[in-house]
C-alpha cells in the first residue's frame, strides 16, 4: 500500500528523512525503523529530487544536514506530528485508543505502586505504547511542562510548581529511623537539631526525602552531614538498622522493619513526604495520554492514602 502523499512527497520519505537526521546515519536510521538501509537511502534520494535540493552532506564520516536540510527538518517533524494526531483523533472517535504515552517516575520511590497501573492500562489498551523514565522531581516537572512527558509521579516540596496540575497520591509522616543501639532510640520525639553533626544515611539529592531533610535542617540553621548515600529506600533502612547512621524514612517503611529499626518522630512542624501525579496544566495533548491520565487518577484514587 503506498504511503500517503503531500504534494509529490510521501509521509514515509519525511519519516526516513527525520530518522536519518536524528541518528546522523542511514544505517542507524534503518535499524531504528526496522527497514533495510538501501530502502532508506532510496526514499531520501527521492525526497531530495522532489525538492530539488540535497538535504544531507554525505562527504564526511558522518551524515550532516545541509542548510536546506536544517530548514526543512522542523517542518517535516510538524507534518509527521500532524499526521499522527489525525490518526489519533479518528481512532478516538471510533472508540479506539492508540498512540504513545510518556510517563515519568521519581527515582527511589517506594511509596507509589506505579507498575500495576501501567500493567493494567497496557492490558486494557494494548495499542498504546508506554515509555517510562526515572529522574529527579525537578527534571520530571520540567519535562511535563515542556511536553516531553505526559504524566509523572513526583515528590513535592512545600512550594507547588507552576504550570502543572497535581493529584496528591501519598501524604505520609517522615520519621528519623535509627538502630536499637543508637542514642536517639529511647526518645519518642526529637527536634531536627538532634541530627546536627551526625553522620546520616540518605537518598540522593533530587529525591523527595532528601529535599525534606535539607529543608528542615536549613530551617534549624545547619546543613545535614550525609555520610552514606544510596538510591534504594530499602537499602537505606538496612543501613540505618545496622547502625551506620540515622535515616529519614516514611513512617510506614520504618514500621515494616520495627524489629530492627526504631522510629523517632520529629517534633515541631514535623516532616511530611508527599507524592503526586503531575501533568501539564492545560492537559496532555494526545488522546492516548488523556486516557492514561484519567485511568491513573482513578486507579490512585481507589488506593487509600497513608496519612
Automatic annotation (TrEMBL):
- Signal sequence, renumbered to the chain: none
Q: Which GO terms describe its molecular function?
A: DNA binding; DNA-binding transcription factor activity
Stretches assigned to the HTH lysR-type domain: 9-66
Q: Which GO terms describe its cellular component?
A: protein-DNA complex
Q: Which Pfam families match?
A: HTH_1, LysR_substrate
Instruction: Tell me which Gene3D superfamilies the record gives.
Output: 3.40.190.290, Winged helix-like DNA-binding domain superfamily/Winged helix DNA-binding domain
Its keywords, alphabetically, are:
DNA-binding, Transcription, Transcription regulation
Q: Which PANTHER family does the record match to this protein?
A: LYSR SUBSTRATE-BINDING (PTHR30346:SF29), TRANSCRIPTIONAL DUAL REGULATOR HCAR-RELATED (PTHR30346)
Q: Which family does it belong to?
A: Belongs to the LysR transcriptional regulatory family.
Q: What is this protein called?
A: DNA-binding transcriptional regulator, LysR family
